[in-house]
């Protein structure tokens, strides 16, 4: 198993720096006992209540970039405290990575309360995905019924060059807007057809088009 080791202390006091050394040594031994291959060791001095930590971002980036199976920490408080800990545990679980701690001498055993919170977060995210997909289907159906033809706009996308502006079918934005779709519904519809656009982008393109039309007239 490939592992990444994460050690953290809160301050830069001398005794805290000694704790970093101890954490690293204990976790390396834990990895050895469990026949793990340590890909990277990340250490930092930062508050566990903050999620904006360079070290933990490096851990998450490495998990995504490498085939990491296990995160090694001294105990769950080293990962974080309060809401930061729950948020990070959720991110790590979503990547399918196990957490081993020196305190448990093996896989982390979450409290019933933490397990319940993580389960609720997972359920909420699943319903958010379902609602988002439903909005896409609804927007696409309305758009097609109102004359949107995605095949006409998608077939030449590979010819687009430059990155100053996102490629957006402005004429379709105008058509769908005239058919009383909201800017959010138009954005969702276009994303469903492969256009990486936000509600703000759709609104901006519509305003630009309207201004240009007014200037001509």
Quick structural summary:
With 217 residues, the protein is an alpha/beta fold. The chain is built from 9 helices and 5 strands, in the order E-H-E-H-E-H-H-E-E-H-H-H-H-H. The chain has 2 domains: 2-110, Resolvase, N-terminal catalytic domain (Rossmann fold), CATH 3.40.50.1390; 128-216, no CATH class.
Short descriptors:
single chain; 9 helices; alpha/beta; Rossmann fold; 5-stranded mixed β-sheet; 2 domains; 217 residues
How would you explain this protein's 3D organization?
The longest helix has 34 residues, at 112-145. Strand 4 and strand 5 form a beta hairpin. This protein folds into two domains: 2-110, Resolvase, N-terminal catalytic domain (Rossmann fold), CATH 3.40.50.1390; 128-216, no CATH class. It starts with a strand and ends with a helix. The protein is an alpha/beta fold and 217 residues long. It has a five-stranded mixed beta sheet, sandwiched between helices. It has nine helices and five strands; from the N terminus they run E-H-E-H-E-H-H-E-E-H-H-H-H-H. The relative contact order is 0.09.
């Amino acid at each position: 198993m490939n592992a990444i080791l994460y050690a953290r202390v809160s301050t830069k006091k001398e005794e805290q720096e000694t704790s970093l050394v101890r954490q690293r040594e204990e976790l390396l031994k834990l990895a050895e006992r469990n026949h793990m291959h340590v890909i990277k060791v990340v250490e930092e001095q930062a508050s566990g209540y903050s999620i904006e930590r360079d070290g933990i971002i490096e851990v998450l980036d490495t998990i995504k970039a490498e085939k990491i199976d296990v995160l090694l920490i001294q105990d769950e408080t080293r990962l974080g405290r309060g809401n930061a800990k729950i948020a990070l545990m959720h991110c790590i679980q979503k990547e399918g990575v196990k957490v081993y701690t020196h305190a448990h001498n093996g896989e982390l055993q979450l409290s019933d309360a933490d397990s319940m919170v993580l389960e609720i977060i997972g359920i909420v995210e699943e319903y958010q995905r379902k609602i988002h997909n439903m909005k896409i289907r609804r927007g696409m159906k309305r758009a097609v019924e109102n004359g949107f033809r995605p095949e006409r706009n998608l077939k030449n996308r590979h010819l687009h060059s430059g990155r100053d502006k996102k490629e957006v079918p402005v004429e379709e934005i105008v058509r769908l807007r005239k058919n009383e779709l909201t800017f959010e519904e138009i954005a969702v519809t276009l994303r469903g057809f492969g256009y990486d656009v936000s509600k703000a982008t759709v609104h901006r393109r519509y305003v630009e088009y309207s201004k240009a039309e007014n200037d001509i007239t």
